[in-house]
Design a protein that fits this description.
The protein is built from 8 helices and 6 strands. The chain is α+β, with helices and mostly antiparallel strands. A 4-stranded antiparallel beta sheet has the order 2-3-5-6, with no helix packed on it. The protein is rod-shaped, with a radius of gyration of 39 Å.
Length: about 425
């Protein structure tokens, strides 16, 4: 990185020995400090992406809502599977005799009626309820997929900010080393007082950058902790390794829609509307009921059965059928549009991931190493008096900017991965 100690040429004059000794001592001190910081950081438990996702799932406030919806759908399915309740009627009457010799007589009657649903209508009604259960399940899957993408983005942001803070601290340590070198050169008359002013200003900027990055990390931690129900400590640390991203070539945009929870949900809604149309059409058929009646009149008992038909003569449910057909057609159109949108989103996400990887590869192809080596060489040349201080600062800033851009390219890859997972509707975090 930027704090490599430059090598010195053999046989350098005594004028430069003190500067080299101080630089080496400071470099060693910085190395020890960074090692100690790393050891302290290592003592802090580092949360993996899967661990954070597990905490987020457990703390998801939508869980209660979705569970209630699933319970409601299951209850509706059980209700749809039940038979219609029978009816039981009682009747009693009393009659006086017409002459003095006639006795008063009572009449008693009991009737049992059982409505009978047409098999096609019953199956359609059961299918409507079953589709509601499926819809509730896929609604929960959609929520989980959205949470997974959100957690991946928040986790990646925290990791990026951790690395940016580490880079800022390393840069501040480098600025302190350069300040010591400049102080020594100014004291020896080898550099102007203006160089000391400039390097102190540079160190102040580096120290301020540490504070800025620390604030950004705290904000990123707040976002991720909120997703986990604020169960994380204020100074939690995430694992310092980017999760592997899939090969874009392994993702087929044309077939990605088949397992998308949003698509499955829309298919369940379409199935429900189609079955609702069948239920509405069944209303055209006559209502059917069978019954049994028992009566006692005077001194005689009677037993009989009956069949009752409700004739749809005036209202054949034309309006209800038309409305159900319109809802089904709307669901068909939405399903077709959703398939198109998912294929498009997946294709764009794959392209975005490929582009982000190309940008990252540009830094991994030698740019970082070249910038670091240039800074090392210019530091050596400054110690030898071959370049001025402004040239050294410019090289240092370039090297830091290259490293920051590299970290940003890593972050962009992870955000592209999160977008691809969102487009695919993935509801889990792969190890």
């Amino acid at each position: 990185m930027l704090n490599r100690s430059p090598r010195t040429r053999p046989g350098a004059g005594p004028r430069r020995r003190s500067a080299r000794c101080v630089a080496l001592a400071l470099g060693l001190a910085a190395s020890v400090g960074l090692t100690a910081a790393a050891d302290a950081s290592a003592a802090t438990p580092r949360l993996t992406l899967r661990e954070v996702f597990g905490l987020a799932v457990a703390a998801n406030p939508n869980q209660a809502v979705l569970a209630a919806r699933r319970a409601e759908a299951e209850a509706e399915r059980r209700r749809a599977a039940a038979y219609s309740n029978p009816e039981l009627e009682f009747a009693a009457g009393w009659a006086d005799g017409r002459d003095a010799d006639a006795d008063s007589r009572t009449t008693l009657a009991v009737a049992f009626t059982q409505p009978i649903e047409w098999p096609a209508a019953r199956r359609a009604r059961a299918a409507v309820a079953a589709a509601g259960v499926d819809a509730a399940a896929w609604d929960a899957a959609m929520d989980r997929a959205a949470l997974a993408a959100e957690v991946r983005r928040a986790f990646g942001t925290v990791l990026f900010r951790q690395r940016m803070l580490a880079l800022a601290r390393e840069d501040a340590a480098n600025a302190a080393e350069i300040e010591s070198i400049v102080d020594l050169r100014v004291a020896g008359g080898e550099a102007a007082e203006l160089d000391r002013i400039k390097v102190r200003l540079e160190r102040l900027r580096a120290d301020r950058a540490v504070g800025v990055e620390a604030g950004r990390l705290a904000a990123a931690r707040t976002v991720l902790a909120a997703l986990c129900g604020d169960t994380l400590s204020a100074d939690f640390v995430v694992a310092d390794a980017w999760p592997d991203e899939p090969e874009p070539a392994d993702t087929d945009p044309a077939a990605a829609w088949t397992d998308h929870p949003a698509l499955r949900l829309q298919e369940a809604l379409r199935a429900r509307h189609a079955q609702e149309l069948r239920v509405a059409e069944a209303v055209r058929r006559p209502g059917l009921a069978v019954g049994l009646a028992v009566a006692r009149e005077y001194d005689a008992n009677s037993l009989g059965g009956f069949l009752r038909l409700e004739l749809p003569a005036w209202d054949r449910n034309a309006g209800g059928i038309a409305a159900a057909a319109a809802r089904r057609d709307e669901a068909d159109a939405q399903l077709a549009r959703l398939r198109r949108d998912i294929r498009r989103d997946v294709a764009l996400a794959v392209q975005g991931l490929e582009q982000a990887r190309e940008q990252r590869a540009a830094f991994e192809g030698g740019l970082r190493q070249a910038a670091t080596e240039a800074y090392r060489i210019e530091t050596l040349r400054y110690r030898e008096g071959e370049v001025d201080f402004l040239h050294l600062l410019d090289t240092r800033r370039t090297a830091r900017q290259v490293e920051a851009e590299y970290l940003l390219s890593q972050y962009d890859v992870q955000m592209a991965r999160a977008e691809l997972d969102r487009a695919l509707g993935k509801g889990d975090i792969e190890p």
